[in-house]
Amino acid sequence: QSVLTQPPSVSEAPRQRVTISCSGSSSNIGNNAVSWYQQLPGKAPKLLIFYDDLLPSGVSDRFSGSKSDTSASLAISGLQSEDEADYFCAAWDDSLNGWVFGGGTKLTVL
Amino acid sequence: QVQLVQSGAEVKKPGASVKVSCKASGYTFSSYEINWVRQATGQGLEWMGWMSPNSGSTVYAQKFQGRVTMTRSTSISTAYMELSSLMSEDTAVYYCARLLITGTIRYFDLWGRGTLVTVSS
Fold first, then answer.
1. Which of A54, A55, A100, B75 is the most buried (most CB within 10 A)?
2. Of A35, A47, A101, which has the smallest distance from its Cβ to B44's Cβ?
């Protein structure tokens, strides 16, 4: 069981917008920044969002992040087939003194 | 080119140990912590611990305490993760990841391609 809770899967049609949630607690999301990672099939994770809502250089602005209290969200607009991947959230946990991840959400572009 | 290059796939028997390497290039190895994260097939990511290439200090996740050892060779910019007393449940892809720290901001900005470790009798 992952410390951070994500929906196992989401799906949406091309050109639409989808949101992926990540729920935690006061010891992780509530007190530390969230980052998001995209994992294409058979590939290593790739940084999408850091410090809750910041985009690294080179990442499309179709991706955006937000956080409120102990939950965070990743939004992807203008969905494209190449967005089909697994998406993970991560945060430092002060109680566990370590990094915690969500279980991952598989995005299907219909 | 900034990258982390990991060693190849391993097949081990239960009870054995495995040592995975992660060679850094394109940046100053000693400037960034190296973390190890694993992923069992179809499962989520699981953090194992981190190592400071500068000092060699380590922090391990409680789950792996006593079974994991993270070391480095600064002369060849390589980090190592050794896991002992392997069980079938340790079958997973093991990733090394660079941790970027700027003040209170921390995130994994660079990942290796992963090393598949299969534990089977």
1. A100
2. A101
